[in-house]
Design a protein that fits this description.
Length: 397
């Protein structure tokens, strides 16, 4: 495959600052408020940078419930070590609306061996910059495997090695997609807005039987072989699922992304991970002890969260079929809140208008509508969509 050089800040790094745990305030609340957090990666194609700032838990603004506030007034550019501007980022637009705090580079960037790169961020009168770093060649992934443990939990594992015995520090990220299906196929669907009963077919995209969902990694995953005689990593667990996870109800796929990093970056990310696991926050020990390689040039004493490294991206995809696993997927749509079984109920056409879309039509017979709970016949009620991935191996819609 063709390698693409880029700068990467692990997308999982800021999980602790956003949705994974509650924000933490050490003594002296202002010490953790207003810290710029930088995440994303600079690719030859598709560069994305996310900017946000920490806020105090005493800030009651609805915009800051996650402990972070998006930064939307930045000017971001990619520069080389001769201070040439390689590309300028623009605010990302999704469906005609600005994606808060997210900036993208729409032009292709060509990276050259022997040249170092950095990101430069200007916010108001302040200028921030990452250290200039050189790309590191990433070894290929040997294999992505999985195992189902005795408790029916599932581990996804990566194996890799460097034949030259040089690369010993790695970071991983992943994208996962899965297909799932309704417990029952609904032959019809009621549209409350138009008071219509719409017939559905398994062979057209209007069915609510097949759905797909997706997710990306949000935790820091690093590994090293520095204490081994050979630069080999074997079966490193990068993702764990408890038993009964709904991702494995039909067909699951994971795309693992591997990056070679240097010792300093590994130490930084490993310290961040340990702080999160031990205290629920990077603010213990003090942030200054694990500061990354992004600095405020205007005010060098201002702390900034983030570490930019240069690497090659190597990817590997696998699929896991439900027939390869033991156990159930954990989704139960036929019981109510009290654990009682819900039976299929017969309704008339007039009943449907009163029910709205709370009941799913399992099938119709002689003007009688046999209905199940909507979550049993409409797969979108489980959070997925009808957006089938382009690479998906099945023919249905």
């Amino acid at each position: 495959m063709k390698y693409k050089y880029f700068l990467i800040l692990s997308t999982g790094l800021l999980c602790f600052l956003s949705t994974c745990i509650s924000p933490y305030e050490p003594k002296g609340i202002q010490s953790s408020e207003g810290i710029l957090a930088v995440e994303g990666m600079i690719l030859e194609k598709g560069t994305t940078i996310k900017l946000s700032r920490t806020v105090s838990i005493y800030n009651t603004s609805e915009k800051t419930n996650s402990g972070m506030e998006d930064v939307n007034n930045a000017h971001i550019q990619v520069i080389d070590d001769r201070r040439n501007v390689m590309a300028v980022a623009e605010k990302q637009m999704i469906d005609g609306k600005i994606n808060p705090g997210v900036y993208i580079v729409n032009t292709e960037i060509s990276f050259t061996h022997g040249t170092k790169y950095a990101i430069e961020i200007k916010i108001g009168e302040k200028l921030y910059q990452s250290s200039f770093v050189s790309p590191i060649k990433t070894p290929e992934i040997d294999d992505i495997t999985w195992r189902q443990n005795t408790d029916k939990s599932i581990d996804i594992m990566v194996s890799t090695h460097d034949s030259e015995n040089i690369i010993k520090y790695y970071s991983w990220a992943y994208e996962e997609d899965w297909e799932y299906r309704s417990l029952q196929f609904g032959t019809h669907r009621y549209n409350a807005a138009t008071d219509e009963v719409i017939e559905q077919s398994l062979f057209t995209a209007n069915n609510r039987y097949y759905c797909w969902d997706s997710n990306t990694s949000k935790s820091i995953v690093v590994g090293t072989s520095d204490k081994l005689t050979e630069a080999t990593i074997k079966n490193r667990v990068i993702h764990h699922f408890p038993s009964g996870n709904t991702r494995f109800s039909y067909l699951y796929s994971i795309l693992v992304k591997q990056y070679a990093i240097d010792k300093e970056a590994y130490t930084y990310f490993d310290n961040i991970k340990k702080n999160m696991e031990q205290s629920g926050s990077i603010f213990a020990p003090m942030l200054s002890e694990i500061r990354g390689n992004i600095a405020c040039l205007t005010n060098p004493d201002e702390p900034v969260v983030g570490y930019i490294v240069a690497a090659e991206e190597v990817v590997f995809r696998i699929f896991i079929n439900m027939e390869q696993l033991e156990g159930e997927d954990g989704y139960d749509c036929v019981r109510n809140e009290n654990g009682q079984m819900i039976s299929i109920i017969k309704y008339t056409r007039a009943d449907l208008k009163n029910l709205g879309e709370s009941a799913g039509i399992h099938y119709v017979d002689l003007n009688t509508y046999y209905c199940s709970p909507i979550k049993c016949v409409d797969c979108t009620y489980r959070g997925g969509t009808k957006n089938k991935p382009d690479f998906w191996p099945n023919d249905h819609q």
